[in-house]
Amino acid sequence: MLEGLPPNNAAHVMRLSCDEATARLVSDVVVETFDPADAAVAAFEEKPSTKDWSGGPWLVEAYFGSAPDEDALRALVAATAGEAAARALTFGRVEARDWVASSLEGLKPVRAGRFVVHGAHSRDEIRDHEIAIEVEAALAFGTGHHGTTRGCLLLLDKVARRRRPRAILDVGTGTGVLAIAAAKLFRRRVECCDIDPVSVATAAENARLNGVSGLVEPVEASGLSHPVLRRGAPYELVFANILAKPLRALAPQIAAASEFGADVILSGLLARDAPGVLAAYRAQGVVLQQRVDIEGWASLLMQKRA
User: Please, what CATH class does the domain formed by 142-304 belong to?
Assistant: First the structure.
């Protein structure tokens, strides 16, 4: 599981060797606590030949563009995973390219319904019937290993079994995995946006890599006021895989941009945040159809009813 892009060519790193459950807890709390522009997290199981520690089979690596507050991080980990994990943290510096490459080497393709998200190193493992989405190793955010992306892909697969939406929007596209998946599946244009210019460039490059650059052309936008996004409305399918707070704030805009009966797939929220997000959308006439929980993260399939 990887989340975030290394903020600079050289990064400050926090490492923790531990069991899988602790690795997932720690990586999730770092993702939830820090802005993606400031921190990147990788949590993965190391191959036996590369293990050189005694703490456990999993490694968490959190990367920061500037020196983090070590005491604050230890306190955060202690509150989440216990004092032993906090004491086991180590800090240092590393070249960003090194961690991206080494992290992705140990990651297997991720399958969600008919979709598979993979790196270039796993091309030979793709099956004939699968819709493959390749993510460049140097662009690690949103590889599909995070529970939110997997949940959204599973819900997209469900939607596709009953309809073929014509107008599609991906809000907070990240690396563009969801937009690329929809473009490949439906062979339709997918409007997409992100507040971060690095993510916009990343999504555009991944669209080119996956042969859908003519269908996926991300724009930099905060909210849905960009002329390109307005022209595409009303939408029959909307993705918003961001975080709970912006999901709540965007509820009126997303509802207004969705036509009656539209499917709205929301994610990026911890399970405990789901009730607040559901309430915000219910107030806009968008109601829950199905919920998928993966690794403590919730993905919601909603439908506009009013």
Answer: alpha beta
Assess contact for 204 and 177: CB atoms under 8 A.
no
Give the contacts of 141 (CB within 8 A, at least 6 positions apart): 2, 3, 4, 5, 36, 40, 174, 175, 199, 202
- DSSP per-residue codes, the chain: -EES--SSSEEEEEEEEE-HHHHHHHHHHHHHHS-TTTEEEEEEEPPGGG---SS-SEEEEEEESS---HHHHHHHHHHHH-HHHHHH-EEEEEEHHHHHHHHHHTPPPEEETTEEEE-GGGGGG--TTSEEEE--TT--TT-S-SHHHHHHHHHHHHHHTT---SSEEEES-TTSHHHHHHHHHH-S-EEEEES-HHHHHHHHHHHHHTT-TTTB--EE-SSS-SHHHHHHPSEEEEEEES-HHHHHHHHHHHHHHEEEEEEEEEEEEEGGGHHHHHHHHHTTTEEEEEEEEETTEEEEEEEE--
Indicate the domain borders of the chain: 2-102, 142-304
- The Cα 36–Cα 195 span in angstroms is 11
What pLDDT is recorded for position 128?
A: 87
Check residue 139 and give its pLDDT: 41
CATH T-level fold of 2-102: Alpha-Beta Plaits (3.30.70)
Confidence at 24, pLDDT banded by 50, 70, 90? confident
pLDDT tens digits, one per residue of 168-197: 999 999 889 999 999 999 999 999 999 888
pLDDT above 70: residue 98: no
Taking a C-beta distance cutoff of 8 angstroms, is the pair 169, 127 a contact? Answer: no
pLDDT for 95: 59
**pLDDT classification of 56: cutoffs 50, 70, 90:** low
Q: What is the mean pLDDT of the chain?
A: 85
More confident residue, 140 or 135: 135
